[in-house]
Amino acid sequence: MKLNQNYFNVNDSYLFSDIAKKVAAYQAANPQKKVLRLGIGDVTLPLAPAVVAALHSAADEMGRRESFRGYGPEQGYPFLKEAVRGYYDERGIRLDGGEIFISDGAKSDLGNILDIFGQDNVVLIPDPVYPVYVDTNVMAGRKVTYMNATEENGFLPMPDYSVDADIIYLCSPNNPTGAAYSLQQLKEWVDYANAKGAVILYDAAYECFVSEDGLARSIFAVEGAKACAIEFCSFSKMAGFTGTRCGWTVVPEQLAGGKANRMWLRRQTTKFNGVPYIVQRAAEAVFTPDGRRQIAGNINYYMNNARIIARALEELGIWFAGGKNSPYIWLKCPGGMGSWQFFDYLLENAQVVGTPGAGFGRNGEGFFRLTAFGSEEVTREAADRIKRLLLK
Ligand code: MLT
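The joint structure predicted for all components is written out below.
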């Protein structure tokens, strides 16, 4: 047998596994120290009561012969697709049920979608970026072209017609920088993609954190997007499903004359058996009036954490972005420190864990990401420790 040689072109381990290993080693050597984790963007609030009630009742259904379910439709049960369709409908975006595919989360679909695209596509990815976009393409042997996301362009690169691209990744609000495209800016991307015959793989996993008018929550709010975009979204950050696993992907009928939609259906029915029934019922409950109210409370809670971190950085005079329409705060490492240097400095001197910007790409060097997904107590303590350390 021959191994896939492309795997030798990605880093030995995934960014967040690397960090977890480093933190575990530090904790093992310093068992008495309390480490505060604001690194990986993992939620800490429990599932909303409406979601838990739906899980219980679906579990009961599964325990009765007359309501037990085996394999479900690979692309999701109609009740959940209908709820997702309604979510878009509220924002004036009309989707057909057949365009919505329920999955176990945006990360899997963002990697798996590459199955339907040819090997020789030119891939355009912002730098810095969520590492999954780059790694999945490198694993598949595709060449990646980067576009610079920098302080100068507000970490929101815009299309450059002198660059040719076939597959373009956009994430807004962005992981890791927290920057969010306006609808007008996205329109420029849609026009570019349509002009080049390219597809935009649009990661909307953080859309629920957008609070400012005029910022995009779905690429399909932009005219022309259905001809050139696939959107990935998730219940992970929106409703605390990081461990429960559910998301959705929209592959419009208009894209490649319906071929992309049919190919994705073919791919999913072949390689995926769908999300568990009980999880889909739980996800459906997110869209009920109680569910909506409860998750709005959770989102506010996290955004309050973002404000706590932002205030501390303001007091320290540290440059940062994000935190307003995003649960991530993207800050410039103080004193000209490198990203990993600052990671070690914070871990060793304040026992606070963040994510080094360099882990997201070359342009992330010198930056650092903190997440607002911790508990309020941990966030306050981390902000205090950072202030005490850096005010010295
Ligand atoms: C992150 O910290 O960037 C996220 O947790 C990654 C993810 O959602 O997979």
